[in-house]
Amino acid sequence: MAEPPPPPQQVRFGIMGCATIARKVARAIMLAPNATIVAIGSRSLEKAVSFAKENGFPATAKVYGSYDAVLDDEEVDAVYIPLPTSLHVEWAVRAAQKKKHVLLEKPVALNVKELDAILAACESSGVQFMDGTMWMHHPRTARMKEVLSDPQQLGQIKTIHSAFSFAGGPEFLKNDIRTKPDLDSLGALGDLGWYCIRAILWAFDYELPKSVTAIADPEVNDSGVILSCGASLKWQEGGRTATFYCSFLTTMVMDLTVLGTNGNLHANDYVIPVNENDATFYMNRINRIANYAYSLGNPAREETIATDLPQEALMIKEFCDLVGGIQGNGANPEKKWGEISTKTQVVLDAVKASIDNGFKPVEVVY
């Protein structure tokens, strides 16, 4: 009988920070077959100890009272950085300079200039970069892309709408880092708008819009941090447009709707699927008005895509596959993830520029 294949080589992770999102990613690292946690660092040793214990870290994981200690640990191959956005450029660059592969929480930077510095450091050191946009790695996403890429399904895609919002509540609005100008000055635009913009670009095969116009009068807090905003995007050819809305002030929604000349596609939980083990999307085709009443030429088609691992663990697995290729086979880092992050950041920057410039159209330059 043939010997079973050896287990995959595990990429050794250090986690820099104890943010709430790090709980989900730490679990994902432990679920992924090719990853393990070897270190956790925080500005407070006590906080790092508590975080490791509460989240069931391996007994061998080292606990540090600084971020530098994680970067200095020779057993750490890669780092996950869930720090406030204002700290990303400093610590991602330091990580790359220490030859650590970088999985960076989104939004990846306050602006594209900062992201350029991060990517330049990663390229100089030959390390892999990826942002933490989890839904990109779910098999449902790949299946939806197959549908969008088949002209027999939706026809020509004409417009897209994306929305991501949740009602943060008084405590969140007062104390969460995403509402603090010195920590995450982009507010809802950075935290939630990132997903909306990424989804739109993904659906249009990452072709950048010609211009972006922010919707007037976004809601901001007393410090000027955006709590709720939206924008419209316009492409050069084909009459293509998109809109998005993001907010810390309205009920939870995670909608993506793609409208084509022959049909439409809709996912109502595209950011975080309702179920870990599967995710659903819907299609309608040949819609028409008949006898002054809306009718469907064909009933809605529902597709549910199963997965053995939650999307965050699939993200870790894909990242570690790339890191393993670099470490074990001398492969070059995959640059597409940096390019996708850059295009997302460029559009986000244009939305912010339109807000700052009185909601005038801003040309998107890449």
Automatic annotation (TrEMBL):
Residues 11-130 form the Gfo/Idh/MocA-like oxidoreductase N-terminal domain. GO terms for molecular function: nucleotide binding. Gene3D superfamilies: Dihydrodipicolinate Reductase, domain 2, NAD(P)-binding Rossmann-like Domain. Pfam families: GFO_IDH_MocA, GFO_IDH_MocA_C3. Residues 150-265 form the GFO/IDH/MocA-like oxidoreductase domain. PANTHER family: GFO_IDH_MOCA-LIKE OXIDOREDUCTASE N-TERMINAL DOMAIN-CONTAINING PROTEIN, PTHR46368. Belongs to the Gfo/Idh/MocA family. This is OLC1v1017545C1. It comes from Oldenlandia corymbosa var. corymbosa.
